[in-house]
From TrEMBL:
<protein>
    <recommendedName>
        <fullName>Ubiquitin carboxyl-terminal hydrolase</fullName>
        <ecNumber>3.4.19.12</ecNumber>
    </recommendedName>
</protein>
<dbReference type="InterPro" id="IPR036959">
    <property type="entry name" value="Peptidase_C12_UCH_sf"/>
</dbReference>
<dbReference type="InterPro" id="IPR041507">
    <property type="entry name" value="UCH_C"/>
</dbReference>
<keyword id="KW-0833">Ubl conjugation pathway</keyword>
<feature type="site" description="Transition state stabilizer">
    <location>
        <position position="83"/>
    </location>
</feature>
<feature type="active site" description="Nucleophile">
    <location>
        <position position="89"/>
    </location>
</feature>
<dbReference type="InterPro" id="IPR001578">
    <property type="entry name" value="Peptidase_C12_UCH"/>
</dbReference>
<dbReference type="InterPro" id="IPR038765">
    <property type="entry name" value="Papain-like_cys_pep_sf"/>
</dbReference>
<feature type="region of interest" description="Disordered">
    <location>
        <begin position="322"/>
        <end position="344"/>
    </location>
</feature>
<dbReference type="Pfam" id="PF01088">
    <property type="entry name" value="Peptidase_C12"/>
</dbReference>
<feature type="domain" description="UCH catalytic">
    <location>
        <begin position="6"/>
        <end position="226"/>
    </location>
</feature>
<dbReference type="Pfam" id="PF18031">
    <property type="entry name" value="UCH_C"/>
</dbReference>
<dbReference type="GO" id="GO:0004843">
    <property type="term" value="F:cysteine-type deubiquitinase activity"/>
</dbReference>
<dbReference type="GO" id="GO:0006511">
    <property type="term" value="P:ubiquitin-dependent protein catabolic process"/>
</dbReference>
<feature type="active site" description="Proton donor">
    <location>
        <position position="165"/>
    </location>
</feature>
<keyword id="KW-0788">Thiol protease</keyword>
<dbReference type="InterPro" id="IPR017390">
    <property type="entry name" value="Ubiquitinyl_hydrolase_UCH37"/>
</dbReference>
Amino acid sequence: MSDSGNWCLIESDPGVFTGLIKGIGVSGIQVEEIYSIDKETLEDLKPVHGLIFLFKWQGHDPAAQSSNQAPIVYDESIFFAQQVIQNACATQAILSILMNSPAIDIGEELTNFKAFVSDFPAELKGHAISNSDVIRTVHNSFARSDPFVNDMHDPDAKEKEDLFHFIAYTPINGNLYELDGLQEGPRNHGPCPGESWLEKVGPIIQERMAQYAGGEIRFNLMAVVDDRTKVYKERLATYQAQLETLQKAEGPEAGSWLKGEIEHLEQGIKKEAEKTLKQQRENKLRKHNFVPLIYELLKGLAQQGELQGLVEEGRTRAKAELESAKQRKAAAVAAGKDVDMEDA
């Protein structure tokens, strides 16, 4: 796999993914992190266009050990790109859903890109993504600001870091597909009429998780859904119209359940506005370089003659904590207890 082009690592965060989607020109769509695949959770998020699953990469696909491994299907009507660039799997998982969901307006940029690569084989589609200035620039705009370590590639890293990989699940032409850029093609998990794919995908993801050794809990699941504020406002308008009609027929006291639903939706709209502002702020903080601020603070403390004292105080405190840890360890050993203390 090539590392040319320097694609940064993308944090598995719904605010980052939503910002990335908006950055490449797609509106009316957002990403929600989900902690359960139960019917009630997914019902509240409908319509769900696809799921993005993050798992620890072990140099092979654990799902390949499954006896129920879905077959790879080569279908020209499916947008599928092989991953040919390091760290691009997050964006490719997003594109796998956006490009294969007819209900999503992908905008002018992606529409033109999709038309341009429509006849390309999967590998060339991957190269086209890596060479897209727009997609790469938006992707890299979510790189964490770090003046000391290049998080795109650190050749001096002595310890091997865990690698994580994003894949996508989405319904296409009445079938549930698994789109993984490290595979040769899309995997067809079988028919799923309507929105039944949400019931079908749960056991598949759970089976993938079960392939890992016990103790591995670092998984993440996000849903690509319609803009929640838009959905809530549409429902609110419907309920308000129903309430008005009902009260005209039965009086102002009628429709208590509708009033409850309206209040619930109004609260939902307020929470979405607050969440959006929070995500925007967090995305700005991710990109901000705080080193100059830290430098000025240390410089100010030094000029006031306070820095040296704080440094000595820190050293004294660190020595005291280390000595305390050693004493606790010695006491535990003397008592014949097992010791597992990182600070010792």
